[in-house]
Structures are given as structure tokens and as C-alpha cells.
Prior knowledge:
The protein is of the alpha/beta class. 27% of the residues lie in helices and 14% in strands.
Amino acid sequence: MVVLGASISCSCSCSGSNVWGDATDRTYGTNGTYKLSQAVNHRRTVTPIIRARGRGRARGRGRYGAAPTKLGSLRDPPCRYRKTARQTPKPSMSFHSKMAPMRSHRLLACDGGGMRGLISIEVLAKLEKELRSLTGKPTLVLADFFDYVGGTSCGAIVAALIAMGKPMDDIRTFFISSCPDMFLKARLWERWHSKFRNDALSARLRALFGDAKLGSDRLQTLLMLVLSNASTNSPWPVCNNPAAKYNDRRLSDCNLELPLWQLVRASTAAPTYFPPEVIHVGIRPFVFVDGAMTMYHNPAFQLFLMATTDVYQLGWEVGVDRLLLISVGSGSSTGTEGNLSPQEMNILYHASRVPAALLAAAQQEQDFLCRIFGETLEGERLDSEIGDMHGHGIRGSRKLFSYVRYNAELSRAGLDWLGLPNVDPAHVHPMDAVEFLDEVQQIGVALAERKVKPEHFTGFIPEERKAK
């Protein structure tokens, strides 16, 4: 059993290692594969038991549970972690330790993408595995390596859990077991406002993060979450940097006092998909929607700015050997329509196409900016004109950071390149097709195996952390 603020029991015979508060045993196969299910491709049932704290959801009361949910043949990706017996959890540290002077800093940015966030999770699981091997620390988590983590929408969930010091195995388990509840159809009379309900998701987030606030010492890294304030029609990237202008605890509306679960919920409130989230900042209520409704669906460049520019009161030093930015996407799915007729482009056509087109353009623009100002170590081709930007930038200027971008192209050609001829692009383009979550996971595993290489980040491991 893995405990994530709520109990999650599996129908398989595994017993997960938990560094979230108690230590239990992991179950491994003979080849060292970590078994969340009884076998690869074996159908499994995960029964989430929600113990909602306090009054349950943000508006209203009650306890929310979830019946056993069939998730198909989701796989546990191959891994070769050293087999370990019962382990004592390491003492937690606060994000304040990340603000001490250091020779170099490491940033991690997680894109939005709904259920396709599982692609990011599998990539990050491979990254965690490689870091454990390089450092010789089998219990290392990504919060031990990264100093500042940021996320938008489903990426906000992943970023917040990483900042809390959670291992990727547990984050994967939470995400897979939660997806059916995240995309629980709204009642018929509610569908004028949103396609899905928010009560079960709110309850899960409340159970997961408890009473932690943005300024909580339980966060082990600096954290940036992207929200869109519908009341002011403006992007709200909020962070736990104590020196930031609106994080002064003397203020009655200090951002550090905002509930963490509610900020994450607001960042995932995609219009037409989920209801908005109302957060009281001081005495004033604001209506928030998905952070992907801003230019920061991909939050990588904004995270860089918040870590380095003087207006954000952090001012980390720049340089290709001083700053590493790893950006993880959840798949690109723009596609082409070669036989499109102008007569087809009516109001309904634009209503269904324009939001996705704007999200894709914003995502690529942020990636492009990172490649202009950063030294690109890894990243797929952006387009046929500018390529992948390796070795290119602004003439006469120096690069400000080292940049790594992991993302998958969800076209037929992109999936074939990953060695996935049996994955249907139509199944993995939507952000809410939970019934095809196993195919999404296959993409994440294949992308991680092809793209995540130790040379992308070895130079940023402090000497004292490297394996002797």
C-alpha cells in the first residue's frame, strides 16, 4: 500500500515503498522490475479510498469516495533499481535550503496536458532513475536534485508533488488511480458550465496536500504554479520565494498563505472541462481557471525569468555551467488538414480548433525562447525552417543557461519513430480519453528510453552527491 494523503490499495500483490511518512517493502520481480501490477500488461484494479479532510470540496461538504476503476493494461515500465529492503525515510528539508548560495542551480518545468501528463511522469521517472544510478543513492527523489520546480495545469500537480519530496513511483500511482475521478462526467444539468465535475478531484487534492499552504516548510524546493485569473483577465504565476513582492507575510493578502491544494486545483480548471476555482486572496475572492489559458502552457521560460530577473527578488546567476533548465512536455498534437475547404470553417469549426491552436502556438513559442537564450542540449525539431536550434541563437550574445526539452510528437510519423505502430494517434490526442491511458503510458516509456541521457545533466550533479 502506498499512502498519498489518502489510502490507495491495489488489487495486485505489491507492497510499495513509501518515503512519504513510513517505510514499507517494495515487491520486485526476478529481473529487478518494480511490480505495481502482478505482471506487465496484466489488467489491474486500483481502488482509491478518499478520506477527505475538513469540509471536503471547496464549496459544500461531504466525503467523496470512488469505486474500483478498471484501467486496462497499464504497464509498469522496466527499471533496474537496486533491490532494497525496508528503508528508513530520510529527514525532510525545507525549500529555504535551496536559496543558499550555490555554484549552480537546476530548474524543472512541467507542461499542461490533461491525462497526457502521464507522458511527463514516465520521462521524469527515467530521469529519477538515472540520477539514483549516478549518485549511488537509491532513495533519491527529484526534489534532491532540482532547486526550483514549476508547472501548469496537470503539470502543476506533478510539480507540487515533486516539490513535496514525493518519488516518481508514487506520483505515477496517484495519477493513474486518480484519472477516472479527474474526468468524472458532470451531471446532466451541470454540463452547460463544464463537461466534468470537480468535487472528486478537489477532495483528492485536499486529502493529498492537507492543510499545506504555498509557504509551507513541507515544500522541499522552490515552487511556481501558473494560474489564470479570470476576474482580472491576467496570468498569475505564483511562487513560494519569500522575497517576492506579494509573499511578504506582513500583507493581509500574502500569497504564501494560500492553500496549496486550491492553487493546484485552480491551475487545472480548464474552461469547458472543469468549473473555475474561487480563491480568497485576503478578503477578496478571485475566479481562477486553467493556467494553460495564459502564454505559459509551457512554463519553462517564465520559470527561468522568475529565477533570474531582479524584479522577482531571487537573481540566480546565469551561464551554461551555472543554470540547467529541463522542460518536460506532454506531447504535441497539432496535426495537419491538407484537404480542408474554406466552406468547412464555420463557427463550430473555429470553436473546436482555435483553443487547441492557440495552446500549441504558446507552447512552441516558450520552447523557442528557451532555445534562443539557452544552449540546447536536447530537443526535437521545432519546424522545417529553424530545426532544433542546436548551436544557434542571437549573433554575438552568450547563452544564459543549459536547456533540455523532452517531448513527443503524437502524429503517426512521431509514434512510429518511437517504435509504437500499434498506438493510434486519435486515441492519444484528446486530453480526457482515460480509456486509452495505457497507450499514453507507452508513449512516455518509449520517449524516456530514447531521449533521457545522463550527459544532459551529469555536469550539474554536485561533486559530493556523485557516486564514489
